[in-house]
Design brief:
By secondary structure, this protein is mainly alpha-helical. The protein has five helices and no strands.
């Protein structure tokens, strides 16, 4: 089919995992998902999810949210 982009399963898994982490982070911290994404991007949480996916996706989502919260706090974020 012309114009259709086929993603590898690994890319789909990474995207799904990232979306779930953002969603869970936003719920835990009572934020809109878009606000959570911007916060995570600003304070290094998104980069951490990307760079550490191989290890992080083996942990629970709660552990991943704990980790990105800690990363953001170390990088100047005020949410604890």
């Amino acid at each position: 089919m012309r114009g259709v982009v086929h993603m590898s399963q690994e890319i789909r898994n990474r995207i799904d995992y990232t979306v779930i982490c953002i969603s869970e982070f936003s719920q835990r911290h009572a934020m809109h998902p878009q606000q959570a994404y911007l916060y995570l991007k600003k304070y290094g949480g998104m980069a951490f999810l990307k760079d550490c996916y191989d290890a992080e996706h083996l942990l629970s989502i709660d552990d991943a949210v704990d980790d990105i919260t800690a990363v953001c706090k170390r990088n100047g974020g005020k949410i604890a």
